[in-house]
Write a structure and sequence with these properties.
There is one protein chain. The chain has 16 helices and twelve strands. By secondary structure, it is α+β, with helices and mostly antiparallel strands. The protein has a six-stranded mixed beta sheet with strand order 1-2-7-3-5-4, with helices on both faces. Strand 1 and strand 2 form a beta hairpin. It is globular. The structure holds zinc ion (ZN).
Length: 451
Amino acid sequence: MNNRQFLVGALISTLSSVSPLLVSAQVHEFDLANGIHVIVNPVPEAEDVGVETFHEVGFVDEPESMVQSSHLLEHLVCYAPGAGFEAKAAMEWLNKKGMANAETMPDSTHYDYASRAENLEKILEIEAARLKQTSFDPQMIECEAKRVYQETDFVENNPQAGMLKHAFMALSHAWKYKSKTALVRGGLDNMDPGKLLNFYQTTYRPRNLTIAITGKTTLDEVKPLIEKHFGDLSSNDPQSKPLDWSKVPANHTIGWDSQHRAVCVAWNPPKNKRDSVRLSLLSAVVMQKLANDPALKKKTEMVMCSNNMWMVGDLPLFVYAMAKPEQDLDEIEKLISETFEKELKASASSSVQMIKSFGFQYDFQRKQSTWPRMQQQAKMVQKMGRSEAMSLQLVLLQDALVRCSAHRLLGKDPDEMIKAIKETKKEDLVTLVNKTVSPKNQHVVHIVPQD
Ligand SMILES: [Zn+2]
């Protein structure tokens, strides 16, 4: 889907203002027997609910020669029939009753629903039906592939956005399959429905799924509803193949059907989750410095590195840039890798307090959101031209999404991980950065027009 303007906020901005007066009880979290993780954040004063379903599947999971297939799946899932609706009708109903959207990311796909509280069960029924597809219609595939490619045209024409998501489709094909080309505008229209179905059925699994609900509901209401609609999903493990970084080429060039040129320098993710989290947070600190670097601004349209939304783990530690026309890609590669390395090392020595403060922010964030704070956030959204009702729904959705992301980052034992973040030592960070950012762990990919 497209047209998302608000649901992309980084955790850093969401968590910046912490007032002790607004701190309240923990949110409720529980797991279904089949592995689905559920987060419930009751906001009694709200009239609506925001529901996020967060599937841990994205571009890095795409099978060989199926570039954009996770994005196409997102469209097909949105328009799937079920819960008493014909194909496409559920999406229409959802948008009439509130808001519905979705977004595919490198390592996740999330579906967003906001509506009056009385529609909560119907939303859950629709989402559960979306997870039980047994076939995809070839005509629908052709139609949605076109729309997926239209979105490529849109980002192609907005170079300051850096084609970042499309670049990750190409990067994952370079890393996993050493592909020579990655078509971001071709090959899906006549895709074998069976291949897509297999990709969907092996990755859209309960163990890959987190559901977060924020708004006018209670744990007592949510628990039986989730059990009723999702409890019967088979708990078969997702068949994801983690990337073997020892087999990823040190240097690779991949062609794509875009006029833009880009480069990514990446380093193997650490084996342990705690180190991956620390690197994600540390590079989130570095990200701002890269964005303001004058030398980078001169040569590149856009620079981005790992952070707490594009986290190290399934993704490597990375720095990425899209070149301005006429600028030399080798020079940009040298510039981004040197600048990133320098800033990362400097931050490892100087920013340990900032990393620790993330621990306190995540502690705070695991508490229930208070209505005054949400109203305040909605007022800010309203200033961007949304209606009051829509702004409040967006805030509910954003709250649920941030909780899914935080769950992803913190893992199965969030208290333990938060404690580890708070106890980060400068020496640990310095050692971790030196160990990770070494030439033998490094993988450079150039992305260039295919001819
Ligand atoms: Zn889309």
